[in-house]
Design a protein that fits this description.
3-stranded antiparallel beta sheet, 54% strand, Jelly Rolls, globular, 6-stranded antiparallel beta sheet, single chain, mainly beta
């Protein structure tokens, strides 16, 4: 178990994430996504996450059973089950809460605007 004494800031090419909770069971983050940026198209093998936009405007793309684009509404949670291909796109600067299981490195990137593996 990790005992965070302060918020851990992780710089990303699309903005940053601030990890405010990290245990062996769950992780809590705030994603700060810059206007016009998007995260990688990705899925998780095990990680189960819920996203909550609380400031700004964004869409989320899904592939598979729920293919298409969904407008993210403020204070409307979106659960991402393991195996679900998804990508967040910021229309304006955004703040998104992410609560998930603790598999922090469980990211399979399918496409990435920043050429990350």
């Amino acid at each position: 178990m990790t005992d965070l004494k302060t918020i851990k800031i992780v710089n990303k090419p699309w903005g940053e994430e601030r990890i405010y909770a990290l245990t062996d069971k769950y992780i809590g983050k705030i994603l700060y996504v810059k206007a016009g940026q998007r995260l990688s198209k990705q899925f998780h093998k095990v990680k189960d996450e819920t996203l909550l936009l609380f400031e700004g405007k964004a869409t989320i793309e899904f592939e598979g059973e729920r293919s298409g684009y969904l407008k993210m509404n403020v204070n409307y949670p979106i659960r991402i089950l393991p195996g679900t291909v998804h990508r967040i796109m910021a229309i304006t600067d955004c703040k998104i809460l992410e609560a998930s299981t603790s598999e922090i490195d469980d990211v399979v990137r399918l496409e990435d605007d920043y050429q990350r593996i």
